[in-house]
Amino acid sequence: MPSSRNFDRPGFRHDEAERAGVLLVNLGTPLAPTAKALRRYLGEFLADPRVVELPRWLWRLILHGIVLRIRPRRSAAAYASIWRPEGSPLAVLSEALRARIADALALRPNSRLLLALAMRYGEPSIPRRLRELAEAGVRRLLVLPLYPQYSATTTASVFDAVAEELMRWRWLPELRFLTGYHQEPGYIEALAESVRPILADDPPQALLCSFHGIPERYFRAGDPYFCHCQRTARELGERLPWPVERLYVAFQSRFGREPWLRPYTDELLADLPRRGIRDLAVLCPGFAVDCLETLEEIAIQGRERFLAAGGERFRYIPCLNDGASHAAMLASLIRKHLQGWPEADDPAALAFADEARAQRQRAFAPR
After folding, report:
1. pLDDT tens track of the chain, all 367 residues?
2. Sign of CA dihedral 3, 21, 43, 266
3. Are residue 194 and residue 114 in the same domain, yes or no?
4. H or E element: which one contains 72?
5. With 0-12 CB in 10 A as exposed, 13-18 as middle and 19+ as buried, what is 94?
6. Is there a single domain that holds both residue 38 and residue 152?
7. Which domain, by its residues, includes 346?
8. Residue 228 maps to which CATH number?
9. C-beta separation of 194 from 209 below 8 A
10. Cα-Cα-Cα-Cα dihedral of 107, 112, 117, 120, to 10°?
């Protein structure tokens, strides 16, 4: 008996052409810089048990009784300060990156490889994009979360959302899932390229890599995120090269009262001028594209904090965004993980895929 849990496709054709799909996933964004939109977005984001690991009954009381009554209005003002005419910077830049990756892969309208973008929270949602890919004939799926450094709070949450949707499917696709690329040579080189112009033209006294934080207890429980961040920063310093004593690593965006990964970015920005560092450049290697946490928290609030503490010059280095080297690196990563599938860049394999479709058509032809 058919189950109502299944994602069914009435009128499904068993001779349809098969394709491979690549699903890029970023964190997400509210649809507008308003308290109403933020309440909906934060309600989904902060309800994820991967993000906040507290007893569900307790966290629901805190979330709906306190957080969602106060935070949406504050967050809406922060988003309004960076909002673009075309929308949220994260959404706009993520789509621009997807388009640049498609160009790097030389995808054509009739390509047997499809490249889509989804958001873990908000729209376009992971279930929506997965179903669109299925409707387009995708039978092999590569999921690439746009989080260089693995964390259960981000990468594993994407896997949860993909798995939850696929539980409803009658015919599962072959699935591959990337868990990170924090030490990928192309990624490190792309970061280095973004920093070199400042170092060559007018070097600062120090360089700060600010990563998003997570609670310390997640790290103690086995989350490798802290180690991945340190590895990225160390390899970046070696690639530049840059004196290790003038390369700082810190963690931003902490939430709640429990200890998070240290040092905290905001505290370090206030302390560096007291150490004699008055000319600082900051980059955020853990963010694929610029967003609230980089444009408002670092480029605006971070600058103000550093200058108020006695700093004299603060330079924010934008994220890799849709830069050519970033797109080329991700395209290369995609090609590597597509190997063995007929949609990979191999004309003979593509011809084999076409022949397989012809065989299926003959098998289901009326007799």
Report:
1. 344 467 777 777 887 789 999 999 999 999 999 999 999 999 999 999 999 999 999 989 998 999 999 999 999 999 999 999 999 999 999 999 999 999 999 988 778 999 999 999 999 999 999 999 999 999 999 999 999 999 999 999 999 999 999 999 999 999 999 999 999 999 999 999 999 999 998 999 999 999 999 999 999 999 999 999 999 999 999 999 889 899 999 999 998 889 999 999 999 999 999 999 999 999 999 999 999 999 999 999 999 999 999 999 999 999 999 999 999 999 999 999 999 999 885 433 443 344 444 444 444 444 4
2. positive
3. no
4. helix 68-80
5. buried
6. yes
7. 19-182+325-360
8. 3.40.50.1400
9. no
10. -150
Give the total number of structural domains in the chain: 2
Please provide residue 25's backbone torsions phi and psi, each rounded to the nearest 5 degrees: -130, 125
- Beta-carbon-side half-sphere exposure of residue 39 (alpha carbons within 13 Å): 10
Secondary structure E strands in the chain: 19-28, 113-121, 138-145, 174-177, 206-212, 247-252, 279-283, 313-317
Same domain? For 31 and 169 the reply is yes
Structure tokens at 138: 């995708």
Residue type (1 letter), 356: A
